[in-house]
Amino acid sequence: MYGAIEAGGTKFNLAVCDESLNIIHQKQIPTTTPEETMAGVFEFFEKYPVEKMGIGSFGPIGVVKGSDEYGHILNTPKTAWKNFPFLQAMEEKFPVPTAWTTDVNAAAYGELKKGAAQGKKSCLYLTIGTGIGGGLVLDEQVFHGASHPEMGHIFIKRDPADTYKGTCPYHHDCLEGLAAGPSIEARTHIKGQNLPADHPVWDLQAYYLAQALVNYTLMVPVEKIVLGGGVMNQDHLLGKIRQSFLKQMNHYVEIENIDDYIVRWGLPNQSGIIGALLLAADL
Ligand code: ADP
Ligand code: ZN
Is this structure's pTM higher than 0.70? Predict the structure, then answer.
């Protein structure tokens, strides 16, 4: 059996599966303090003979093997979790091989192996929800360098008519600050899910997201970009992003089939946990 954790800022998604990757049990528990949440994690996995484990965690996290910070959650605004040695706590309780990466890297891996990017060797996954975060799989491996990607916080060109200051506590008007779910609500005073499809804020949203995808494409030309997260539940948004992408790219990099290049997640709300199970299986 394999076990997996998708550790998010508001909830932990836990799952165990058999060798054929059939999920046997899945459970969500709230993210509170490490003591409380980890007690729930241990209780969940204790019932199963888990042979390998996969963890996709909210970040930033230490991913450089051999460094003091490896396996730890680093400088998070969730102060109770700051410097928490997550991987070590798991390995101490369950001494089995354990894969360790970010939640969004795990989601990218899940989408590559079982979701919208199946059959490819590289993909980029971007979630647009409470925040914006990106994961990267290159050559069928999740990407870790000196750290892991932080694609949500790239700096983008503002629409000159947009005067909204942005929600990012670090940069104000980075991509996340201008285009994550809370920015929609801050601009319009209406939650994204309650806004009509013809509201002008969606064009602005598409412009910023497409601009980010152009930048990613220029830097890491992956085979597919997969978009997920609550905001992508807006059915019309994907088409607007594709159109804006083509306009802004202006044929500098020719995309053969935009409908096949920028796609929605194939494993809605499950990319991360399935990716973490697959990372365990593939250890
Ligand atoms: P999280 O990022 O916390 O894991 P979600 O991916 O569900 O959770 O993202 C929540 C954000 O997405 C909120 O800002 C919410 O307003 C927005 N959102 C959720 N559903 C929709 C929708 N149908 N259309 C637009 N925005 C949505
Ligand atoms: Zn930022």
Answer: yes
